[in-house]
Known about the structure:
Layout: H1 3-33, E1 35-36, E2 52-57, E3 63-69, E4 86-90, E5 94-95, H2 101-110, E6 113-117, H3 131-148, E7 156-161, H4 163-172, E8 179-183, H5 189-196, H6 202-205, E9 223-228, H7 236-245, E10 250-255, H8 262-265, H9 267-279
Parallel strand pairs: 1-5, 4-6, 4-7, 7-8, 8-9, 9-10
Antiparallel strand pairs: 2-3, 3-6
Amino acid sequence: MTPKTRFRLRLILLALVLGGAYLALHTYVERFAYNPSPQLNKTPRDVDLPFDNIVVTASDGVHIDGWLVLQHPGEDLSATNSTTPMLLFLHGGEGNMSDRLEKIHLFHDIGLNVFIIDYRGYGKSEGSPNEEGLTEDALAARSYLVDQRGVKPEHLYIYGEGLGAAVGIALATKADAAGLITEGATASVLEKIQQTWPLFPWQYLVRDTFESVGKISEVHVPVLLIHSVDDDRVAFSDSQRLFALAHEPRQLVEIHGSHKDAFVNSFDAYYDAVSRFVHGHYQRSPEQPTEDETTGTSSSTSGGEPASKEPTP
């Protein structure tokens, strides 16, 4: 074997090693943000909620699966006397919408219509997940509600948990709504990856950064941020950072419990915060400021008591 041939083989081997390393890092990044499940284990019918299975089409032709759960099945949402708030539910990065039945039931009990979708690559939806695609999926869902079902933007609330909070923030920068609710929001997925593996030049490798901290100032609707101070995945300080950059009116509500079950652990506070936000029950009393001078957070856990607040399986 000539020296020239050996040199070429070394270059090929180096290229293969570097390519393999890049693919491994890219796969790690993908799994950091996305962990979809294709299997729908249950439907709202399993928790006694009638629903419609809806398929919407994103701008790039990808078909997105969703469930529409109404307070009054068959209701004409475009009717002038239809004032029931609609919640567009953007779930987190793990599993699929069938893992959110308890929370769907909670929002239904609060008095909301709920439309939840599975992003591309999740459940029965087509395609593979990526940041731009997830935003397109949310836009398609919002367009379906407003353009096809006649839901008025002033009755439409965007809700996102975990990764869905980043999708919800991106959606709220592009489309009008009555308000935005986030739960366990990450300020930046890129930052989280950099903190986990600080020695890699992730800024050149990561395509899906989910930089919510750079987008929240572009949101011009009322914002409710809910976050557990005990969150074991996303630091409470992430929502504090987002709160500091959000426009008024804004609220930051502290709850307790792990990332996954805080809404159950702090059920009353969670229920009250969402109910007052969407139904307009939250009122600031003169002697009770909503902004803490030391933490910069606000709470919406005071005020009148909503209706039934028992967790539903």
